Amino acid sequence: MRMFASLLLLSLTAVPLFAQNPTTDAVRQMVQGRAKNMTAAADLMPADKYSFKPTPAQETFAHMQFHIVQANNTLCSAIGGTASAEDKDLKDTDPKDKIVAAMRRSFDVCTKALADLKDSNLGEEATVFGKKSSKGAALLTMSGGWGDHYASQAMYLRLNGILPPTAQKAANAKDDKKKGEYKD
User: What is the pTM of this model?
Assistant: First the structure.
């Protein structure tokens, strides 16, 4: 019985050592893939298609990229407890190269903001879009937004006959598999 109690106590104290920040660690891992895919999507769209919008009521591709930059800078600055990030002069009418460069910088802002964040800090107050919130709410908004934004980028690319970054990887894997060269 004493051995069982010792093992139970050891297991209960060891778990926190291995998973002290499961939420923030997961988002830290996520930001790298999102930065790669979302920046690649912005880069794949030809400059002359940045004014494309599927219907008159929808936003242009350029405006969507502009919005991603704004959201990253605003949310990650709130999470990191820093002043709002750079690129305040960015406009959705700017050239593609300026918008893509701003997107790269916005993901750098997120990487820096998440670097030292711990799950125990998620309850701390943050101001997001002018409203009091928590760092945890900002983190959830940001990570959820990445999924929505990438899905929209992918749709706009496909409507222009361009395979999105994540679909290119899958298509290349299928081609390699057909040739007997499949590598993952």
Answer: 0.81
